[in-house]
Amino acid sequence: MQDVAPPHTARETLQLLQELFGCRVISKGSEKQWAPHSPDLNPLDYWFWGACKDSDSVYHNKPGSLEELRLSVEQYVREVTADTAESPSKSAQLDPVQYTSA
């Protein structure tokens, strides 16, 4: 699931996602699009990226390349404890999406 932030919809990003996930990609520019301000955000949207940016391991030393950024994010993921990772999911009260036909 992707929002419409430019880095998330860059051609290279979408190509990689298509290779990895095929037709299951939900993003602007793919077959399935997701509302940009959907109330059904996942923990990556409302917790992980903010926590990742706030951590010293990711942006403390500004990554000089995409590879350095990837390695920094992977290091941060290894540092996150199970309790920390489960907390946002447990506290989320997401409303189910209701689809209606016109």
Automatic annotation (TrEMBL):
Location of the region described as Disordered in the Swiss-Prot/TrEMBL record: 82-102
Composition bias, Polar residues: 84-102
InterPro entries, per database record: RNaseH_sf (IPR036397)
GO-annotated molecular function: nucleic acid binding
Gene3D superfamilies linked: Ribonuclease H-like superfamily/Ribonuclease H
Name the record gives this protein: Transposable element Tc3 transposase
Species the sequence originates in: Amphibalanus amphitrite
